[in-house]
Amino acid sequence: MGEQAVVVRPAALGDAERIAEVRVAAWQTAYRGLIPDDVLDRMDAVAEGQRRRELWGRSRDPRVVELVAELDGTVVAAAVVGPERPVDDERPRAVETAPERGQLYAINAAPEAWRRGVGSALLAAAEDALRAGGFTSAVLWVLEGNERAARFYDRWGWVEDGVTQRDESLTPGHELFERRRTKPLG
């Protein structure tokens, strides 16, 4: 069987449930051993799909773009980009957000789509969407210890800049740290 072509397109409301399924499967596989099992096991694709559907119609910055990648007509990955969000924790920062800097908020691929070119096609489209939004550079955050993601972003020219943040939003009582990566988009 030959390689299937990856199709990347803007996400639609009808994709909400599948995007949630992809995210849950990706997290439960990629973050096992990095995020506590009980947190991963509680993830609920049905509830997340409903939440995504409810939030879909709310107004948001037009530079926020959600994309999906398909193989054989099935959504197997999703990404969201937009303006850089401020660092969440309260520690002083040497680097502040900048209006010309965008952010890759999330990119998730179903485990069965890993190593099939899906992530690369989706990341290329996400970078194009950031450029189209007028951003000259971008940031993303990688969970400390997520070596698979770090290698992927290394190949695409995203470089750690030394900024870290603590994230307890999904794991109350468990500190997780993320490392920021940057990339010029010129």
UniProtKB/TrEMBL annotation:
Residue intervals of the N-acetyltransferase domain: 6-183
Q: Which Pfam families did the record assign?
A: Acetyltransf_1 (PF00583)
The record's section on PANTHER family has: AMINOALKYLPHOSPHONATE N-ACETYLTRANSFERASE-RELATED-RELATED (PTHR43877)
Species source reads Salana multivorans
- Name of the protein: L-amino acid N-acyltransferase YncA
Domain of life of the native organism: Bacteria
Enumerate the UniProt keywords alphabetically.
Answer: Acyltransferase, Transferase
Offer an example of a GO molecular function term for this protein.
acyltransferase activity, transferring groups other than amino-acyl groups
